[in-house]
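Team,

Forwarding the record for the chain on the shared tracking sheet. I've put the sequence and predicted structure together so nobody has to dig through attachments.
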Amino acid sequence: MSTSNKKNNKYQIAIVPGDGIGQEVMEATLSVLEGLDLDFDYVFGEAGDECLEKNGVALPEETLDIIRNADACLFGAAGETASSVIVKIRQEMKMFANLRPVKSYPNTKSLSDNIDFMIVRENTEGMYIADEEEYTPEGAIARRIITREAEERIIRYAFEYAKENNKSKVTAVHKANVLKKTDGLFKEIFYEVAKEYPEIETEDFYVDATAMYLITNPQNFEVIVTTNLFGDILSDEGAGIVGGLGLLPSANIGLDAALFEPVHGSAPDIAGEKKANPTAMLLSAVMMLRYLNENEAADKLDKAILKILSEGKTLTGDLGGSANTFEMAEAIKKEMIGDI
């Protein structure tokens, strides 16, 4: 779902590689994007663990300004400072919607070959406001904030996404049987908004049941809308059912800003070894292109990724191949250029 109105213009793109494999998959992705006939002006920013060690701050104000002034941002990965970096960026830029597509691809360890659903996750509140009291002799306390404004906004976004992308069903995920006030409000708002979309089927499940259904019947889902923490957990489970974190992109969308990042973390155990799968970062770039309304370019890149995965000749180790990060990216680039 795009909120950008630009088309065929020069784009200023904020590039924040971050830590670990984020730097490698970002370099590989920028190399592939060179093969598109688009005018990108890249502005690089620092953030993450290495930035903290170097500058004494994980997310410099300068980087926030770069993101704020860009048409979109590509983000690699953050390590231990993730909550101080990516969560802060989402909150500062009011990126209220986190989109995490879960889709099966060929030559992966997907449970099925016909999985294709979108998790629409609220991005600004819930447990991730990180409002925790100091330790007490009894333990610790964290506050969970659910507001009508934020939840109605994300639920409406999910229905609009379904409408624009020809999806016939939206599923709400919550734990209203236990969290009767906060998730009770979420469920109540869901069915209020659903009345405005009579053509779209609705259902709701408890989050624990959903975790099971994602394994036993993932084809049942088209669009899932849920709160912050639940969306984070379920999207990682989604990665597991379609072959791993190296295959899941994501988008963070606000009214005036957007950031695109792979779901995987910085993976310090393989950082610098060129083993990282670039697919999730490249698919995040596809999502960015669609946000910018560059759908023809997005289709070309998406088609090239699918072709290389289908052929199975140039895949990284997590997909059973022997190619490194840059070899797989180069194969995708060549396929894409050949299609232009």
